[in-house]
UniProtKB/TrEMBL annotation:
The gene is secF. Part of the Sec protein translocase complex. Interacts with the SecYEG preprotein conducting channel. SecDF uses the proton motive force (PMF) to complete protein translocation after the ATP-dependent function of SecA. It comes from the Bacteria. InterPro entries: SecD/SecF_arch_bac (IPR022813), SecD/SecF_bac (IPR022645), SecD/SecF_CS (IPR022646), SecD_SecF_C (IPR048634), SecD_SecF_C_bact (IPR055344), SecF_bac (IPR005665). GO terms for molecular function: protein-transporting ATPase activity. This is Protein-export membrane protein SecF.
């Protein structure tokens, strides 16, 4: 009866206990059998081997982002600068030189003119938001122009919107970091925080490089990408913790590779379907949605790559424990 109970306990024992007993016994056959039993069921892609290349590329792009923002800055939209934005269409293409000369004659030489739809659609932005300035822009456009939209924002409101936008980004990233910190451990939270800041910074560089208008819609794109990126990161982190419990003897880099490989199909399918939607918006949504769609397309692709090549490999270089259970393992062979 005791033998039967002993046999049942041996079968039900966790893999870590069986493996430690086998390694203590020194039996080569038992060691081989235990290693095969606790080995991962599939081959994993060695993503962590490429972490130095990924980190180097990331640091280079971050430095380029800082340089772009310092040299070129942002094309701030009406929400942040204040003024008047007037969009018009015409059956014949607008003449940029004539339009600029007419605006300069009315005292708006610094007006920003953007042509789309082969020159048949124009967006004019000026710093003044009063009624006289709006009439001057209409006169410069000519009687053949049809006004599509007209928006005006005062300087006080634009300053408040800018502060609110920056504060919302800061609070969102901080809340994300606190959540991951609480949900997992210190190292995971720090990695998620750094990766989210990395993605947001790279998106700012994208706006500086492309010259797309940076307005409240752009802030919404930043927040959307930050949330999407952290969603991918949390899924990978959760799988790392799960695999860490299953394969306690496996070195940490192999656990990370296995976790990323296990979630890779889900990540690519989810990102692919989302990118199909944002690309459709970018191609067919018109000039109003183009900036938002282009930014989210870039950000979602960036967030997918950063969750694979930045967030998870950062666990190997950041200080702090990854799994408290690993500390309790008495055998050196079972420590990463």
């Amino acid at each position: 009866m005791s033998a039967g109970r002993h046999s049942n306990r041996a079968v039900a024992a966790p893999p870590e206990e069986v493996s430690r007993g086998a390694f203590r016994s020194g039996c080569p056959v038992m060691q081989s059998l235990v290693a095969a039993a606790i080995s991962p069921p599939m081959r994993s892609v060695p993503f962590t081997r490429w972490r130095r290349i990924a980190f180097a590329i990331s640091l280079f792009l971050l430095a380029a982002t800082v340089a772009l923002v310092a040299v070129r800055g942002f094309s701030l939209g009406l929400d942040f600068t204040g003024g008047l934005a007037l969009e018009a269409r015409s059956a014949v293409p607008f003449d940029t030189a004539s339009l600029r000369a007419a605006l300069a004659a009315s005292g708006h030489a610094d007006a920003v003119i953007q042509l789309t739809d082969a020159g048949r659609s124009v967006l004019v932005r000026i710093q003044d938001a009063d009624g006289a300035s709006a009439e001057a822009v209409r006169a410069a456009l000519g009687p053949a122009a049809r006004i599509v939209s007209e928006d005006s924002v005062g300087p006080k409101v634009s300053g408040e919107l800018l502060r609110s936008g920056l504060l919302s980004c800061l609070l969102a990233v901080s809340a994300i970091a606190i959540y991951v910190w609480w949900r997992f451990e210190v190292r995971f939270g720090l990695s998620a925080c750094l990766t989210t800041f990395h993605d947001v910074a790279m998106m700012l560089g994208f706006f500086a490089l492309t010259g797309l208008t940076f307005d409240l819609t752009s802030v919404a794109a930043l927040l959307l990408v930050a949330g999407y990126s952290i969603n991918d990161t949390v899924i990978v982190f959760d799988r790392i913790r799960e695999e860490r419990g299953h394969y306690g003897a496996m070195p940490l880099p192999e656990v990370i590779d296995l976790a990323i490989t296990d979630t890779l199909r889900r990540t690519l399918m989810t990102s692919g379907t989302t990118l199909a939607t944002t690309i459709s918006l970018m191609l067919f949504g018109g000039p109003v949605l183009f900036g938002f769609a282009a930014a989210t397309t870039f950000g979602i692709a960036l967030g997918t790559l950063s969750s694979i090549f930045i967030a998870a490999p950062l666990l190997l270089v950041l200080p702090g424990p990854v799994d408290t259970a690993a500390k309790a393992a008495p055998d050196e062979a079972f420590r990463p």
